[in-house]
Amino acid sequence: MTALPPHRVPGDRLTSATLRLAARHEHRFSLDTVHHLLLDSHRRLAAGATIPDHLPLLAERLTGERLDALARTEGPVRSAVPHVLFVCGRNTGRSQLAAALLRHHSGERVLASSAGTDPGAAVSAEVARSLAEVGVEVRHAYPKPLTDEVIGAADVVVTMGCGDACPILPGRRYLNWPLPDPDGAPPRVVRAIRNVVDARVRELLAVLVPTTPAGTG
Fold it and tell me: By CB neighbour count within 10 A (0-12 exposed, 13-18 middle, 19+ buried), where does 85 fall?
């Protein structure tokens, strides 16, 4: 693989990240494509970052998700695993709740992700606590910007209070779950929102991956 000139990315950590991601996708995307997406991811995340030292790591993770989404849409055969994207404004509460609960209930049967039209700095502490109460871990989750790659890879887009800021693309199934924002709400309110989201996620999962009755198939 061609080495990336050091001056092309801001810092050794991003240079290393570019090369790691390019190696992972070397038969799919060029070094320039990976480089461009990494810089764009870093720029988007920097706007709301409160801990700059974590930016290179988060930018690498976000770029990896964007490259995986591109690979999903540009591959010869689209994956049979349905992809659900949850979108809200800050990606700190509702959409994080929904994505975490869908991953928890679906295992590997459904791919769940979330994003925000104006992402905040961190997942709501109230939301994290309410999920921990039901055995769902979101320690590594972080608010992510809404990108074209992730929207393009989604089979179902669930909007949750982002209004007109949520883009509409042809060929996608859209659902709207109008729910109050749990960020900063009292614990009992956050739990109530969590329970409503959990019920809707279970209903959606039953539609996306119907259970085959015993003795059939």
Answer: buried
Tell me the per-residue pLDDT of 181-193, one tens digit each, with 9 for 90 and over: 998 899 999 999 9
* Strand ordering across the sheet containing 156-159: 111-116, 83-88, 156-159, 173-176
Contact 106/112 with Cβ under 8 angstroms?
yes
φ and ψ at 169, to 5 degrees? -115, 140
What is the reported pLDDT for 13?
80
CA distance 119 to 122: 9
From the list 113, 67, 76, the residue with the least C-alpha distance to 91 is: 113
**Residue 42 neighbours by CB under 8 Å, 6+ apart:** 10, 14, 55, 56, 59
Residues forming a β-bridge with 157: 85, 174
Q: With 0-12 CB in 10 A as exposed, 13-18 as middle and 19+ as buried, what is 77?
A: exposed
Q: At what angle do helices 187-208 and 94-106 cross, to 10 degrees?
A: 50
Per the model's pLDDT, the better-predicted residue between 31 and 78 turns out to be 31
d(CA 106, CA 102): 6
